[in-house]
Each structure stands twice: as structure tokens, then as C-alpha cells.
Amino acid sequence: MKLLHTQSKEEFEAEIVEVDKKSLKKIVKSNQFQFDWSKEVNVFQIIGLNDESREALGLISMVDITEELRIHINLIENSNDNKGKKKKVDRVAGCLIAFAIQIAFEKGYLGFTSLTPKTELINLYINKYGFSQYGRQLAIERKAAINLIQKYL
What we know:
The protein is of the alpha+beta class. It has a single domain (2-152), classed as Gcn5-related N-acetyltransferase (GNAT) (Aminopeptidase). The chain has four helices and nine strands, in the order ββαββββαβαββα. Helix 2 (92-106) crosses helix 4 (142-152).
């Protein structure tokens, strides 16, 4: 997947890896994330490969809801350096969402992925990422899910 340095407009390769307990403690101590990630399970981070420090640029936690044939994004967050208008790296959240969708395809769920966003982010998920609203939850599947994978992975 390719992330984008916002100032130079240069793309660079990144990878998503599972976070072990030792790394999670380091991430929590870094003060780069607002949420308490120590309470999450199945946490993955996105790492810029050209970054010597291999710092986490974003995190996602997911739950496999097998009986409903979907992956639920429990929590997703960009690091503080990659939020807002002055972010250093773009496409972090899109890559993490596309990663969750890819898992939903691999499990045979037709890309069915859901999340429950903060109210102020509903329109962002609908307009930027192609989610549809179902009550308080948003979900994406099939064609819209494929489009997101093609764009970010």
C-alpha cells in the first residue's frame, strides 16, 4: 500500500502488522494516540517502511462477527501527527479500513465490514469511503468494498 507525505507529495510504501503486547505498551506510552489501546484486542498498526523509527502511523482493532458474516471495526485512529489539516502522512485511515475489508473478503463475507462512528464522522465515512448507514452503524460491502481496496491497497 502507498501512503502520501503531505508536504512533499511523495508516495511511500507501508505495511500493516499485528501489534504484540510489548509494542502496544510502547505505543500507549508514546502519547501519539488519544484512545486507550491497551483495552483492545486484535490490534493492527500501519507502519511506514521508509521510517527508520518504524513508528505507528495509525491503529485499528477489529472483531470477527462470524454469525453475521462481517468484520466490525471496533476502533480506528490515526496518530496525532497524522490528524487534521497539518497531518504529515495521508491515506492512513483509508489503508486501515481497506485492510479490514480485505479480511472480510478473505473470510468469504463479500467484504462486509461495519463500524459505529462518532456522530461527527458519519458523513466522512459515507462520502470519502463509500459506507452506507444502517441506524447508528455504517457498513460497506461488495462493489464499494472492492473500490476501497483498489484505491488504498
